[in-house]
Amino acid sequence: MNFTSSFRCISSRQNCIIIAGMRKILREDLLWSAVLMASLFLLSFKFLTLWFILDDSANIYASLQDPLKLIFDRDTYLFFNKMFYTPLLPISFKPDFLLFGFRPFAYHMHNLFAAFLTGLMGYKIYRLYLPRFESWAGTFLFMLSFPIVNDIGWLSMRHYLWGSFFALASFYLFKRSEAESSISVLSWLFYLISLLSKESFAPLPAIVFLLAKGNLREKAVKSIPFFLALGCYLVLRHYIIGGLGGYPGGLPDPHPASLIKNYVSQLSMVSRAVWGLPLYVSAPVLILVFLSDKRVAAVCIGLLALTTAPFMFLKVSGVLDDYSTFYFPSKYILPLYIFSGATASALAYAPRKHLKFLSAALLCLLFVLQLVHAGASHGFIKHSAESYRELASGGLDRNIQGKDLLIVSQDAIFYNFLYATYTDSKKPSETNLGTVITIDNPDLCGLLGGRLNGKHDSIYRNEKWSDQDGEIISTPLRIDNTVPKPAVSMDMKGQFLSFSVTDSKNGSFYAALKSAFSPRNIAIQSMLLPKHVPMKLGLARGRDMLYLFYCDGGRCSEPIVISPGGG
């Protein structure tokens, strides 16, 4: 048998294990599975009819691209996302758009289905360590919670659901193959798929090492394929986005004390989002686990440290708005899975009746608190969906009438994605539409020339549409040829620009990125540049152009213009 045949045989066998495991749950635990699905549906019901929000249109647009190019082609991916490498997120939107177009209910049901499968896979792993009742108790505690329900309603958080499923499936297949002394190629593949969903699942090789059977050498041998898969992913990620990625200025102060403070702030946000409790109230749950089984408690603490480690470097702002309050906790699916399993293990292994009673009471209390807070983000997502729908419907109505639009809004680029999706999915004869230019900062309208200083039929600003002629916007910033260009250190390697403002002058330094979806669909995004802070940006050839300005007292320099390939 050649390698290809062997691989197909092994993969097919491992795939059968997953399918057989799911069938066994549905056959032997049909009632529990049905209750779980019904509970998820009821908890998330008010989310299911909400329209798309901003990020969703970017993923729908990217889903129209060739899936292989989204994974392996720089230009295709960089135009969609310059900061994070998560190609399977837009790919997961492809069947939704092809089958259902712009009907969001089906997209939400997709997320609900992904969450349900994640719960079943989580149950299968619990059963490796816990009795049946405690496994279901842990599963319900895990699933009927804020992160899961929020990610059903927040469509573009789907990659945390599918990523969790594939990470859990990878570990489950590893434990099955370990018990059978066989090799699980599909386990390694599923881990790679989870990474292509979201990088936060990177710690799985360390988890495999921690929980594998055998001495240190045997543990290392078993975890090596996972570390190799992680290495391949990091090489591909670096090739596509030019590095590890992340939000510009999104890293916290690297000083250990600052990192710990930032980390505790995130955990506090999670505790309040999930249970409505401060961290110092929810954390002592682990004391019960320690009293029940010290070894299990130590393992759970190690697993919590590993699964939360990727979020340690996400900077928590000093001023928390609704977005931050809901965004950070929605990522903590695997840590919550570990926490739920730890709580269930305290119930399963409590050596004394009073400890078992306390564990059961605590689990019930946490469960009730979770039900109360599970849908906390509904108001925020609903407002975001309604605001974006007003922008989108108003813009498309005007564009279809052939009107030229200027949209001035912080998140204006997401209309460009929607408009590009609309035009790309229509026949050429149906797309004789108007032009749209979006910009996120009204102060920069006077700097970029062309149609920004011309006439537009309709303008969107301050969440309102207006139809008018004439000068469309006044701005305090204007080009003045007497103002010197900024001093900037630059290094262009291929499509990746590394730069830093080295200028000693007082004033403001701006970067404006112009992205051309088409000649009649242009987006301009900007940011205020700090001095002496190294930055890196990937540019899509033929579509992206970067402008660097220096401004002082309303007068600005001619821009430094950077385009990949000299275009």
UniProtKB/TrEMBL annotation:
TM annotation in the entry: 30-54, 105-123, 135-155, 188-212, 224-241, 273-291, 298-320, 332-350, 357-376
Key words of the record: Membrane, Transmembrane, Transmembrane helix
Name the UniProt record assigns to this protein: Glycosyltransferase RgtA/B/C/D-like domain-containing protein
